Amino acid sequence: MPLKHIRQLKLGVAFMCSLTSTPLFAGVRNPHVDSIKNLLGVSIDSQSPTDTVTINRMNKLAADYFQSNPDSAYYYGQKGIQLARKIKYDEGIANGLLQTGHVNYFKGRSEKAQQDFDEAIGIFKRLKNDKGLSMCYVSLGRMYTLLADYKQALVYLNLALQINQRIKDEKALADNYKNIGVVYYSQGELSKALDFYYKGLFIAVKNHYSGLSAELYNDIGLVLQNMEVYPKAIEHYQKALNLFQGTKNYQAIATVNENIGEVLLAQKEYGKAIGYLSSSLKVAKSQGDIDGLCSLYTDLGLCFAYQGKGPVAINYLDTAIRLSKKYKYVYNQAYALIGLSTAYNLQKEYSKAYEHAMAGQALAIRLGNLSVRANASLQLSKTLAGLGRFNDAYTYLNQYMDMKTKLKDNESIQKLTSYNYDLDFATKERQLQEQQREQTLLYQQKIASQRSINIIFGIIILAMVIILVNYYMQRRRQQKINAKLEEKNYEVLQQKASLDEQTSELNDLNKLKDRLISILAHDLRAPLSTLRGMFDLLQDDTITHQEMLDMIPGVLKKLEYTSDFLDTLLFWINSQMESFVSSVTTFSVKDVVRYEVENYHDAAEQKGVKLIDHVAKGLSASADPNSIRIVIRNLITNAIKFTGKGDTIEVISEEQNENTIVIRVKDSGVGMPAEQAGKLFKSKVDSKTGTNNELGTGMGLLFCKDLVEKCNGKIWVTSEPGVGTEFSFTIPVYSLPVEGKMLAQA
């Protein structure tokens, strides 16, 4: 399989741009120039004086464009170099060469890239710019990896590693480890590759380098793909994609999609694989990514070959071989040759397959990559078997099996490397600590023999005493400060609690205001409007005297309702005021109930309803009698409202226990469903009209609940449609003082 690592070296922040290709040469008008002039603050094609700020912006544009449009990166890199040479700005020249060299090797122009990097290295060395020097070495390492010159690649990457370790640039160091891992992966040394991948990944994850983390997840996925652990490989590729989503790093996303396509190819899901690979091919074409084009043409050729589309497959594979030969990409050339032999084997053209399989094996041996060599041996075995050379075919089949066995053996090493890296690191750290302790002990033994040790100890002890005294004084001072802070904090908390309490009271008053306004606006306006309307009609002689007499009973009924409701409302409003003091006294329950029953006896008779007082004599309660009177009045009027001719209303009392009296207002009226009964005491409800179309506000029962609770009681309701309703509430019973009880007993 080809090199499928992320192929870009990120030298700047991603810049927003399109995929439209731009000219490579400075002499050709670049369509992005006009849109960037304002950003640069100068006309880049003019002969106006150039400063270093403009050149630095040029080079930054080149770095920013590389991820999404390498041609634009090359254009701005060249512009930066030209402007920097005019004013002899060495750092600008070197940074521009770094960008153009990067694009040159990416485009397959390795010799020109080498020239750019060599000149940049000379300038960076003269300027003692370690960071720039490290970037050049890393770029050269990546280029020689692509050219399969792994020895030279490691030379450059190790030079960069020394610099990054010295300057402690963790981001560059993580990228450095990643690129060294790519070299070892390319050589088939998967265990070493994982060592460096995980070193880079630990740094990237620790510092939240999402781009680098994504690249390393992709690289570890490649190792798992080589081990044929496909689900885990897909899992790592998906992690990489998740980190790349939302960025303009088109190359990286295309590479990960290519890797997923190859996994699907290995799993024989050719249709899905072609979808992923075609998506990556569009990006590779738009950016002139030769390495990507070589590997993608080979992958697509294999997909079409397995689908039985021989001519299409051969065309793709021939193109891959031609490109890889032209640009000297040995790895891609070997992969394409073995792919072409696979296509010919599938078509049973064994002579052609043999020729390409032998060429592919020769390159695989040169590369030293065990996986590529194994694939070459497999195709040779199939080719020779097709040609009837079964002994030779058997020999290559054994070679293939041996190499696959070695790859499987490497699997355990790779897993141990990845899972035990932390343990190895901790072990090495402990060993270093033990060595340090031994050296310290040896040093102490040596100085113990010297007579001056007493003076040294004396000085140390004196210094410690001074430090301890100073520490003690500081600690005491700090304790005093802490105590004051705690005191102030307590005061602040007290003020906050007081403020919260005041705020709560204001909120309660505000809610009370809203409730009163709502009641007065909706429930009292209609009766008063009716009365005013009647007088207006009377004043205008609009109605006759008889019509007015006919209207009077209805108006009086509404006025009576309004008057009763105002009495209740005013009493309840008074109870809500902060200054209201409930007049808790001892009173006879019978007297209070009898008074209200007598007042509403006529109203009940008019509807043909029996209103019966069953309250026992001798029951004394300890509460506000006016509040209880209001509650009983509301419950009786409510019962009359929802009863009709022949129904009965009973007011009953009983002593629930030695501390509580229960008063019940029970009727045999229309009743109500449980759902409606459950809402009565929770919020204002839409009042239903009575059996004779009596009106209501829906607030009376809320008033009753509030007044009962202020008297330390509870109120509840039970009802059944067609059977009737029973409202019950409790009030405290009057208890005689202890002496009074004794006298009563005597």
UniProtKB/TrEMBL annotation:
<dbReference type="InterPro" id="IPR036890">
    <property type="entry name" value="HATPase_C_sf"/>
</dbReference>
<keyword id="KW-0812">Transmembrane</keyword>
<dbReference type="InterPro" id="IPR004358">
    <property type="entry name" value="Sig_transdc_His_kin-like_C"/>
</dbReference>
<dbReference type="InterPro" id="IPR050736">
    <property type="entry name" value="Sensor_HK_Regulatory"/>
</dbReference>
<keyword id="KW-0472">Membrane</keyword>
<feature type="repeat" description="TPR">
    <location>
        <begin position="214"/>
        <end position="247"/>
    </location>
</feature>
<keyword id="KW-0175">Coiled coil</keyword>
<keyword id="KW-0732">Signal</keyword>
<dbReference type="GO" id="GO:0016301">
    <property type="term" value="F:kinase activity"/>
</dbReference>
<dbReference type="Pfam" id="PF00512">
    <property type="entry name" value="HisKA"/>
</dbReference>
<dbReference type="InterPro" id="IPR005467">
    <property type="entry name" value="His_kinase_dom"/>
</dbReference>
<feature type="signal peptide">
    <location>
        <begin position="1"/>
        <end position="26"/>
    </location>
</feature>
<feature type="coiled-coil region">
    <location>
        <begin position="476"/>
        <end position="519"/>
    </location>
</feature>
<dbReference type="InterPro" id="IPR019734">
    <property type="entry name" value="TPR_rpt"/>
</dbReference>
<keyword id="KW-0802">TPR repeat</keyword>
<keyword id="KW-0597">Phosphoprotein</keyword>
<feature type="domain" description="Histidine kinase">
    <location>
        <begin position="519"/>
        <end position="735"/>
    </location>
</feature>
<dbReference type="InterPro" id="IPR003594">
    <property type="entry name" value="HATPase_dom"/>
</dbReference>
<feature type="repeat" description="TPR">
    <location>
        <begin position="134"/>
        <end position="167"/>
    </location>
</feature>
<keyword id="KW-0902">Two-component regulatory system</keyword>
<feature type="repeat" description="TPR">
    <location>
        <begin position="174"/>
        <end position="207"/>
    </location>
</feature>
<protein>
    <recommendedName>
        <fullName>histidine kinase</fullName>
        <ecNumber>2.7.13.3</ecNumber>
    </recommendedName>
</protein>
<keyword id="KW-0808">Transferase</keyword>
<dbReference type="Pfam" id="PF13424">
    <property type="entry name" value="TPR_12"/>
</dbReference>
<dbReference type="InterPro" id="IPR003661">
    <property type="entry name" value="HisK_dim/P_dom"/>
</dbReference>
<dbReference type="Pfam" id="PF02518">
    <property type="entry name" value="HATPase_c"/>
</dbReference>
<keyword id="KW-1133">Transmembrane helix</keyword>
<dbReference type="InterPro" id="IPR036097">
    <property type="entry name" value="HisK_dim/P_sf"/>
</dbReference>
<dbReference type="InterPro" id="IPR011990">
    <property type="entry name" value="TPR-like_helical_dom_sf"/>
</dbReference>
<keyword id="KW-0418">Kinase</keyword>
<feature type="transmembrane region" description="Helical">
    <location>
        <begin position="453"/>
        <end position="473"/>
    </location>
</feature>
